[in-house]
Every structure is written in structure tokens, then in C-alpha cells.
Amino acid sequence: MDRRRVRAASAIAAAFLVVGVCLPAGPSRADDEEARALLFSGRDLWRNGAFAYGGLLAAPGGFEEDGFMLKLLLGGGVYRYISGSLGGEKVIGTEWTAQALPGFRIKRGQAEFKFFFGPEWQRHKLSPGDPDNRLAGTSFGLRMTGELWYEPTRDGLVVGDVSLSSIATSHAARIAYGWRVAEDLFTDGVYIGPEAQYFGSDGYRQRRVGLHITSMKTDATEWSAALGFARDSDGHSSPYVRLGLSQKLTN
Predict the structure, then answer these.
(1) Domain boundaries of the chain, sorted by first residue
(2) Which of 16, 51, 62, 191 could bond 157 through an S-S bridge, CB–CB 3.0 to 4.6 Å?
(3) Does residue 16 surpass a pLDDT of 90?
(4) Segment 35-66, tens digit of pLDDT
(5) Beta strands, E only, the chain
(6) In whole angstroms, what is the distance from residue 210 CA to residue 229 CA?
(7) Which parts of the chain fold into alpha helices (H)?
(8) 3-249 belongs to which CATH class?
């Protein structure tokens, strides 16, 4: 593995966290229109990494109104890669990240857009130490994200998100389509359909194709999940699993 891929192997860890966080929540129900904050958390697992995150999304004007939003996030994970500078030795990395992203929401017809931009902090610890990995230690940067929730028909859904960080130019994107089913089992039903994801940074790429379940609501809680197949530019392939949970806080 060359120096660029060594750096990217740990830089890409943050992208898994961010795409999970960017997954849009569904529209509010009548009984939570007064909510001003939302708690969220999630997990992402695949062959060479396990990541978790949690945070708070605040909307002072409410989630049904256009205007200012603030996303706060804490996350971490464990990942592994093969280091060329250590003669092919396996390196285990741990990562912590924190973000404070001001943003805003715009809704036009059946389409809802969210945009966020703000500072990001990352810390990577490697065992054994890898001299060619410049991300070891603490890094500061800026992150920009965008989210889309669009219902072209009553039973159809298009969701998407993009993210770009100045730390190792890591970037990520996801697009998914869903059909509404199981309206007799869950509030407003759930959306099920295909998804495609992409993660990248300097010298590394990963692509995913799978199936998702979105907007599975039980009382005040909303769940999401995905299962599929991932392959990266180092030739590694495996299944992946993603789980998400959010809950709006009402007065």
C-alpha cells in the first residue's frame, strides 16, 4: 500500500460516520409538530471497520419551518488496514470525531433540503504506530453536508446526502429510492428500496449497493436500517450493515 492509501485508510473512517448522520428523517407527524430538537444515533459495520455515532439536531423554529438548524455530533470507531511502510503489517486504528455544524432547512413542495457547514475535530490512534500515516494524532478541519428528502408520489421516496471534509479531502454520497409499505403495521408505513453509497478520500474509494428500510416509526421513535455489499479500491469486499435511530423531543 502506497503512502496515499495509508493516509486514506484512516481518513475514510470519518466518512462512514457522516453518511450515517446525514440520513434524513421523515416529515413530522401531527403530534410532534412542536418539537424543537431531535436526538439521533447509529451504527455502521463492515469487514474492516465498526463505527458508532450520536448527537443532537436543534431547530429553534421547529422542524416544519424553513430556517436555522444546528447539528452536534460525537462519534468513534475501530478500523484496520495493511501498512506498506511497516512491511505489510496490519494496523488497528481507533478514531474519535466531533462536529458542530450550523445549517438551515428549505422546503419546496414535496422536496425538503438541509445544508450544514462548520468545524470538525478528529483524533486517530494507531497500533502499531505508522510513520506514513499523517492523520495519526489530532486534526482540525471544516465539513459541509447536504441532505434531500423528496416524495414524488404518495408512496414513493427519494433520499440523498453528500458530505465533504477538508481533512484528507474525505467525501461521501448516498442516493436511495423507496416504496411505502406496511401502513397497517407502522405509523405512516415504511419505505423499502435500493440504495447506493460512495466513500472516498485521497487514494481510497469504497462503493456500496444494498437495500434500506427508512422511516420506520414506533411512538416517538424512528428507525432506519440497511444491508448490502461493499467493495473498496484495495480489493476488499464484504457485506455491510447500517442501523439508525432518532427521536424528536417535544415540550
Answers:
(1) 3-249
(2) 191
(3) no
(4) 899 999 999 999 888 999 999 999 999 888 89
(5) 37-46, 49-58, 67-83, 89-108, 111-127, 137-150, 156-165, 171-181, 190-201, 204-218, 221-232, 237-249
(6) 6
(7) 3-22
(8) mainly beta
